[in-house]
Amino acid sequence: MSEAVFTKERHIRYFLRCLKTFLPELYTSNDSNRILLAFFTVAGLDLLGVLQSKTTPEERQGYIEWIYHCQVPSGGFRGFTGTDFGTERRTRENEAWDPANVPSTFFALVILLILGDDLSRVKRTECLRWLPKMQRSDGSFGEVLGLGDQVEGGGDLRFCCFAAGTRYLLRGKSAAGLDGVQDIDVEKLVAFIESCQAYDGGMAEGPYCEAHSGHTYCAIGALIFLDRLSNGSKRVSLVSPGSQRYESLIRWLVSRQTAELGEEDDEDSDDADGPAGDDDVQTLTKAVDRLNLDESIDQLSDLPPPTKESLQWAGFNGRCNKYADTCYSFWNTATLDMLGKLPMVDAAGNRQYLLEKTQHLIGGFGKGVGEPPDLLHSYFGLVSLAFQGEQGLDSVDPALCATHRTTQHLHSLPWWQETLTD
Asked: Prenyltransferase alpha-alpha toroid domain location, by residue (predicted)?
């Protein structure tokens, strides 16, 4: 089989189009998440190593100014500028109409770091005072503060990860300059994260829910931000090699790799003349009702065993019995990378899947086989390849989801330079 080719120049052109021209109409419903779209675009060009060469200093400064325009006076960042009704009209009573958003705050900070900003204009103290207000009594985090400082929005592991990430970015090594600023309840957050492990080892959006690769990534990312993976007394059993919880988590993650790609079967395309009529449905229902369980099983067709050729493409799914999806190549490989278990996957199969099945002709990656590219899947496809050392891509910090160059810049900031004191 011929070597799969990574079309770097096409990916560069794809991200540049997304940055400098209008996005397709389908993105309209994501207008309130514009910071997230900006993250994928800017981070994608940085990962491809061309952000500095393909944009001017004036353009990059313009992007920085736009991010700061999204900063809320009382701390944190809004998802886009559309809710900003002006600082002069803002009061304590109406600020819930234009709230800071937990995920947007995290991504805004990372974008600024990617662009080389020193975060000197970030309302660091205000943001870290706002963050504990977003924590619920069970340790989880919401998305925004509503009227009366009520925590609103989802309470799943995504918001836990972004809250922990924001704390990590702004507190630094020693929380320098933050005397008197209340911290979040870290132990409650850790306990909530551990409570989200499902019976099969993966992490769910909340206790007793179905395991999902995206939430699993968020759980482990949050624990990294909270320094719970280092070899110290604070390490939790979920990420402690040898524990039952850890081993079941690894087993679940590795089993997400699949050769079931969800490709369309051309032979079936001409079989259906239209939707089934009522008579057809009733006939089928009666036929099924006449079968007992053993007979029903006997009527099932045999599943053909996988072939050597079919196993050459091995992407990842996010839940049991689902087809492969480009973004899950990221969620799963990133999590395994954070846990030091990335060598356990079939890297060659994942590469073949991404480059031959979802890499698009015009650049970018689609969600699945034959689908058009979009920013989320395009960036996550690149990052998964970067974990595997794809030539032409920079290395990536899996928790921060940005290049190690960005991490190095973060660690050069003043509150990361302070040494811990007894």
From this structure: 6-401
